[in-house]
Amino acid sequence: MTNSRSWILVLWFLALVAAGLAPSSLTLAESGEAPAVINNPNPGADLWRAVRGHLESPAVTQVTGFDTAVLVNEQGSRWTSIRVNELVPKSREWLIFVILLLGLLYMVAGPAKLQQGESGVEVQRHNVTARFIHWFMAVIFIVLGITGLILLFGRVALIPLIGKEAFGVVASLCKETHNFVGPLFPVAIALVFFNLVRGNLYERGDIKWILKGGGFFGTGHVSAGKFNPGEKILFWLTIFLGIGISVTGYVLDFPAIAVWVVSVSPDVSQYRHLMEFSHVLHTIIAIVFIALIFGHIFLATMLVPGTLSGMTTGKVDANWAKEHHDRWYDEIEVHSDKES
User: Fold this and answer.
1) What is the pTM of this model?
2) Would you tell me how many other CB atoms lie within 10 Å of the CB of residue 282?
3) Angle 242-245-251 (CA atoms, 0-180°, nearest 5)?
4) Domain 75-106+124-216+223-339 in CATH 1.20.950.20
5) What is the DSSP letter of 271?
6) What is the Cα 126 distance to its own chain's centre?
7) Most CB within 10 Å of its CB: which of 32, 217, 252, 313?
8) How far, in Å, CA of 307 to CA of 7, rounded?
9) What whole-number distance in Å separates Cα of residue 183 and Cα of residue 34?
10) DSSP conformational letter for 35
């Protein structure tokens, strides 16, 4: 009983204190006087302004070398935002759009059929050297494409499926593979250029072929040489996109190149800025390149049957050659007659 009374007295005393404070608060509110501002500056404000490079005096660090005075690279946050909010979603949308467009084209046009059917007679289209160079570049491109897409979309697409730990292993493997195989791609581009450039120059009749969409628009036969204008456009896009993706890839693979650019160019302040720009440009070129190759594979395997055999066995059906590359077929027939 005594303990209960003691607790009651304590609570009663606290209630009186609270009641005594209430009027003063009410009077202050009614008077309209604002409370005094407490001036207590954040002692870390100057430190973080210096860290982010907003003070006039430069930051000093114990580590010497490139970007010595840079503690927080604000452009890194901008690069991360561009990658997450721009590159990833828009790249996904672009690739999906291309795939849907190719599917629509197949449903509307269907596979091209030979008017006279297959003849059963084959003619040589690509020699061993051309086929080796083609598949050398194709294998490198596929490896780089798959690993690059995993690095770009993996966080969004794979982590929900396999978890963060497994994705960490996959991403590390893809990164090392991409960096190791990447330097071989310019070699493949150079081989393709010197092997095929002669046959991919402009010829009379190419404009007409383009206007008719290779025979999909209008009536009448569209004449073509060994490589039609569509294949020529693919060739030159491959060369230019290959150069662009190789240059930016080398900058990302070998940061010393970016350091050298900074040393000779006053317009570039930090080598990391150049690498961030190279990454964005590398991704954009890669997505365009992959979409282009999607179209190439689709045309060679589904839309124009008989094309793929030229790069597997090296031979194509004679009627296929007549209908799709008549000028080239006439040339090899004349050459064959002279030899006989």
Assistant:
1) 0.79
2) 22
3) 135
4) yes
5) H
6) 31
7) 252
8) 96
9) 69
10) P
